[in-house]
Amino acid sequence: MGRKWNNIKEKKASKDANTSRIYAKFGVEIYVAAKKGEPDPESNRALKVVLERAKTYNVPRAIIDRALDKAKGSGEETYDELRYEGFGPNGAMVIVDALTNNVNRTASSVRAAFTKNGGSMGVNGSVSYMFDATAVIGLEGKSLEEAMEILMEADVDARDILEEDEAIVVYADPDQFHAVQEAFQQAGVSDFTVAELTMLPQTEVALDAEAQTQFDKLIDALEDLEDVQQVYHNVEAEE
Question: Residue 20 is part of which domain span?
Fold first, then answer.
């Protein structure tokens, strides 16, 4: 799990460096989640997940409120949730999740990003079977022993609990996301360093320098697309 945590940290650091783009994507994601049910995180668990993620990226309250107000008011824009699967250099596996109000535009843009950067599109299921949907919760201020005891006392199941870079990282099934957070919140944890619903690869691959450079260009091109919300892959984080 350690190397997977390295990939998550690398991805988060990259997003932190592109705040305006990330804030815009969160605005869309919050709006879509709010439109699925009540625009209240206490009754809309999907919205609560998005807002918890937004908090770890320091998304400004004004952007969150604007998206929620749009969902509460006259916002009638509809978005489709799409998943694309494909391959990068040396057979690296890539999953792309998108929210779009123009399916043809998004499909064309994603395909172009793959083909122009040494990749290729795959069919549905060609890649995702090698990934596991996972809740990842990171926190500081607790020891590994304390974290394990907190989850045991709350009767919360976790796949794994690790200590990484002076932080505790909990991996759990997606339906345990809120239970993990609530257990730690009851134990006095108010902020989380990571709160993600992600796709973790079952195995990872290492690329040589040339392939890594090409792969990085592919990931950058995909993440730069307006409609793309998340990009997952199975390439090891560079040391």
Answer: 2-72
